[in-house]
Amino acid sequence: AQSVSQHNHHVILSEAASLELGCNYSYGGTVNLFWYVQYPGQHLQLLLKYFSGDPLVKGIKGFEAEFIKSKFSFNLRKPSVQWSDTAEYFCAVNGHHGSSNTGKLIFGQGTTLQVKP
Amino acid sequence: NAGVMQNPRHLVRRRGQEARLRCSPMKGHSHVYWYRQLPEEGLKFMVYLQKENIIDESGMPKERFSAEFPKEGPSILRIQQVVRGDSAAYFCASSPPGQGRNYGYTFGSGTRLTVV
Fold first, then answer.
1. DSSP labels for B9-43?
2. Which of B10, B47, B103 to mutate to probe the A interface, most A CBs <10 Å?
3. Closest CA to A24 of A74, A70, A78
4. Where do the DSSP E strands lie in B38-110?
5. What would the pLDDT profile of B34-69 be if each residue is shown by its tens digit?
């Protein structure tokens, strides 16, 4: 069965600090990987996604993530956070076997990021 | 182009009542997914539907929960005889047909169900 683990449940940073949120998944087949952000009271928004190709993917708002297949990881990074990055961050995996992909996502538990001004 | 519309945003039900949650997908989207977010947890997949078809309901509780996506109108997630444990945020997402479903989908704002 597929699973996703986010190691940091609650992270507190000061503005301008660097951010790295861990995400590990378990699935032996082909994966599509996603990071979503949920600002307080809002819906989930896609930050970035990886399907194939360059394992370093860049998303919106200065976020990037690196897919390391050997480590089953897809960590999210940002060099310098802002107060407006305060939100909950979810890693998600879609494991599939080609044409049988239903698009179902398995989410991690989420990481709450609090950025202090 | 309106996004995924869910209503109501907040729903309060007494134990034993029925809850109906609606989701209108984005224009041109024919795939709908329902997820549930319990307090302090991530989103859990419930069901995947296409028009008039349930494709994957592996995440749906066996009893009291049902979902539909009729030819006309929104997708409905129905919870009969609600219990306190059903209190959660229910999110709907939609994606375009074909391989578009692989490319990440658009979420609605969710319905927060509170059972009292």
1. SEEEE-TT--EEEEEEPPTT--EEEEEEE-TTS-E
2. B103
3. A74
4. 43-50, 53-56, 65-68, 75-79, 88-95, 106-107
5. 999 988 778 999 999 998 999 999 999 999 999 999
CA-nearest residue to B33 within chain A is A104
Report d(CA B90, CA A36) in Å as an integer. Answer: 16
pLDDT in tens, B10-31: 999 999 999 999 999 998 888 9
- Amino acid B95 reads S
Tell me the C-alpha to C-alpha distance, in Å, between residue A92 and each of A4, A18, A44, A84, B47: 7, 22, 12, 22, 16
Contact A81, A29 (CB under 8 A): no
Shortest distance between the Cα of B103 and any Cα of chain A, in A, equals 8
**Nearest residue in A to B54, CA atom:** A102
Asked whether B112 and B8 are in contact (CB, 8 A), the reply is no
Q: Tell me which residue in B48, B103, B108 faces A104 most closely, judged by beta carbons.
A: B48
